[in-house]
Write a structure and sequence with these properties.
The complex is a heterodimer of chains A (113) and B (113). Chain A is built from no helices and eleven strands. Chain A is mainly β and 113 residues long. In chain A, strands 2, 4, 5, 6, 9, 10 and 11 form a seven-stranded mixed β-sheet that branches. Chain A starts with a strand and ends with a strand. The model of chain A has no long low-confidence stretch (mean pLDDT 94). The chains are: A mainly beta (113), B mainly beta (113).
Chain lengths: 113, 113
C-alpha cells in the first residue's frame, strides 16, 4: 500500500496563477483533510471531507477550494495564488470513528512569487 | 478558542537519557490527545493516542501521560537515541466535535551522542 500520495512535490507559482494539488489514499478511508504548515504556526486545517460527496471548511479556508472526486481522491485548488499561500501543504486521511488517527502524505511545497 | 502550547525552543538531550516533552492546552476538554513525530521534509507520523479516562499509555520506549485537571500531557522517550531526533507534535480533536485535529506547533528534539 502506498498510503497517502500527493502531487506535485514542489511547485513555484506567480501571484495570480492557479493550480490544483492532488491527493489520493489507498486505505479505503472515509475522511480526508488538507492542512498547511508554516514556520511558527504549526499545522492548520484548511478543508476536510468527512465522506465522499461532502466537504467542509476548516480553520483557514479563504483562498482555497476543494473537490472530493471519489472516495480515494481529494484535491485542493488555489484559484488565484497569493504570496501568503506560500507553505507546505499536507493531505491526510482517517477511518472516521471515535478516535481519529490521521495518516499524512509527504507534502507539497508551494512557493508563490 | 482552543489553544495548544508546546515548548517552541529546541530540546537538547544526551543519548541514553529520558526526554520529556510537554503539551498544555486551554479552553477545551478533549476526549483524547495524540502525539505525532515529524522528520524534516516529511509528513507527520502517528505515535500514540491517549483518552481522557486514561492516565498513562506506553509503547516500547514511549510513554504518554494525560492530566485533564492540569490540562497537560507529557511525552517521554526513555533510553533516547540520536534516531529519536525529530519534531514532536501534540494534537487534540477539534472543539465542538468538528472533524480534524488541532495541532500544537511542535517541539524540536535533538538527541546528542
Amino acid at each position: 500500500n502506498a498510503g497517502v500520495t500527493q502531487t506535485p512535490k514542489f511547485q513555484v507559482l506567480k501571484t495570480g496563477q492557479s493550480m490544483t494539488l492532488q491527493c489520493a489514499q489507498d486505505m479505503n478511508h472515509n475522511s480526508m483533510y488538507w492542512y498547511r504548515q508554516d514556520p511558527g504556526m504549526g499545522l492548520r486545517l484548511i478543508y476536510y471531507s468527512a465522506s465522499e460527496g461532502t466537504t467542509d471548511k476548516g480553520e483557514v479556508p479563504n483562498g482555497y477550494n476543494v473537490s472530493r472526486l471519489n472516495k480515494r481522491e481529494f484535491s485542493l485548488r488555489l484559484e488565484s495564488a497569493a504570496p501568503s499561500q506560500t507553505s507546505v501543504y499536507f493531505c491526510a486521511s482517517t477511518e472516521r470513528g471515535e478516535w481519529e488517527t490521521q495518516y499524512f502524505g509527504p507534502g507539497t511545497r508551494l512557493l508563490v512569487l | 478558542s482552543q489553544k495548544i502550547e508546546q515548548n517552541s525552543e529546541a530540546l537538547n538531550i544526551q543519548e541514553g537519557k529520558t526526554a520529556t516533552l510537554t503539551c498544555n492546552y486551554t479552553n477545551y476538554s478533549p476526549a483524547y490527545l495524540q502525539w505525532y513525530r515529524q522528520d524534516p521534509g516529511r509528513g507527520p507520523v502517528f505515535l500514540l493516542l491517549i483518552r481522557e479516562n486514561e492516565k498513562e499509555k506506553r509503547k516500547e520506549r514511549l510513554k504518554v501521560t494525560f492530566d485533564t485537571t492540569l490540562k497537560q500531557s507529557l511525552f517521554h522517550i526513555t533510553a533516547s537515541q540520536p534516531a529519536d531526533s525529530a519534531t514532536y507534535l501534540c494534537a487534540l480533536e477539534r472543539r465542538g466535535g468538528a472533524d480534524g485535529l488541532t495541532f500544537g506547533k511542535g517541539t524540536h528534539l535533538i538527541i546528542q551522542p
